[in-house]
Amino acid sequence: MASKPSPAAELATAPAVPLNGKQSLFARLFRWLPSWKPTSEALLEEAETLVLKDFKSEYRDSCVPIGPNVVVRTITMEPEQPEHERLPLVMVHGFGTGFLQFHKNMDHLHSQRRLFAIDLPGFGRSTRVPFTPDAQSAEEEFVDSIEKWRQGAGVDRFILLGHSLGAFLACAYTMKYPSQVRHLILVDPWGFAIPPCEAELKEKFSQFSFRTRMLWNVVNKFKPFASIRAAGPWGPDILNRWRPDLRRTFGDKFMNYAYHCNVQKPSGEAAFFHMQYNFGWAKRPMLARIETQLSGETPVTMIYGIRSWLDNGSGEKVRACRPNSYVDIHYVRDAGHHIHAQQPDTFNKIVNGVCSLVDKGEDLRVDYLSGAVAADCEGDDDLRATRIPPSPEDRSPEWTRIS
Question: How far is CA 145 from CA 1, 9, 97, 156, 190, in A?
Answer without folding.
Answer: 31, 21, 17, 15, 19
